[in-house]
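For reproducibility, we list the full input for the zinc ion complex.
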Amino acid sequence: MLAPLLQSSIYRNLKYRPLISLSQNQIPSISTMRHLTADLIYPIATPPLPKGIITIDDEGTILAVSPAGTYASEDLAYYRGILCPGFVNAHCHLELSHLQDQIPPYTGLANFLRPISALRMQFSTATIDQAMVAAEAQMLRNGIVAVGDISNDATSFEQKRQGNLRYHTFIEIVVPFGDTLEERISQKMQLGIDLLAQAPRNNGNTTSLAPHAPYTMPPAILQAIDEINAPNAWVSSIHHQECNAENEMFQTATGDFVDLYHSLGIRIEQFFSPISANSSQYILRQWQNPAQLPRLLLVHNTISTDADIRALQQTQRPITWVFCPNANRYIENRLPHFDTFRRLGVHIAIGTDSLTSNWQLCILSELKTIADYAPHIPIAELLQWATLNGAQALGYERDLGSFEVGKKPGIVHIGGINPDSPQITAHSTVRRIV
Ligand SMILES: [Zn+2]
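The corresponding predicted structure, in tokenized form, follows.
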């Protein structure tokens, strides 16, 4: 009975061999198992496979990762270039998408931040919603499958519930130094807890609390946030060492951030004393029992030094160092010292930041900027930052980030690559194929 069935037109068209033998009265399930190949497959969790083969079911779940030659060439869908897992955008602000082109590039961080609060209020709900829809569609087109996204309010929650992308929503707690601190901390924490309850949790979405940055994080805030995140093992995130002014504020209470406080009418000298150490040290001094604290994403790290990185790594708190190189170019026009982080063997992931401070939401574009600045970094390492490390940073590595049997990571095709000497260049292209 089986032989005639296998010769039937259904099986000839499906072009695959059943994995199990069937008894006479079993009806085979007609699933569209597919074999995809490319000049180079980057499974990420295992070494690259020249002309390797990814076998998926019709849901996109990985059934096998095989070396070249495992299947007949007529059974394969071939892509010129690279196939890698879907990208993870470890840092974004979907709710700021409507502010694209509202703040010019290269102003420096303090000047960038100054107009944002007022600007956010000047747009209709419809405009804000349309911008988020378009921004999300752009991420999907560019091969992004999951996002670590900062939210100051519930604006983006409905879009995230649609289930087009998987989101970890970091509810951001911003508390400037100043008067009536205790009262404001308690208000902001309550608001954050209310938002936690509303944040999307369908479709594998997750959420937690996150401080904004050291310069808007009076001492009690980090501990209050960790007290909520830690018992749940929830990941947190903070903008970190994005510019020299941040360090200057903590070292000597001078510089652009102190001026920013003054321009907001806050005499920060009355509420804040410098610590003769930089913002990295300031964060460290807030931690009690760091080894028991959940993962923290340190975002930007543009000016972090060898000593800063070592000091934070020594605490045994799990840290992911997130780079958003195009946002660094947009705002400060400088880039982190990638090799310092690489030499110290730290865990690195990639983010885009928001459309307010970037030209696009595209992880490949971030990798292009890194590859242009530091062409000696191997492409396999860049792709790991962009996929598995981001998935691990957000706690999504069980499903996303690598080609491993049982995962459903999405499949991205990177074209414009010379397979004999693979490197991401300005000519490289990206599209999601699964
Ligand atoms: Zn950001």
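Residues 349 and 390 are 5 Å apart (CA to CA). The longest helix spans residues 181-198. Both points were considered when choosing residues for closer inspection.
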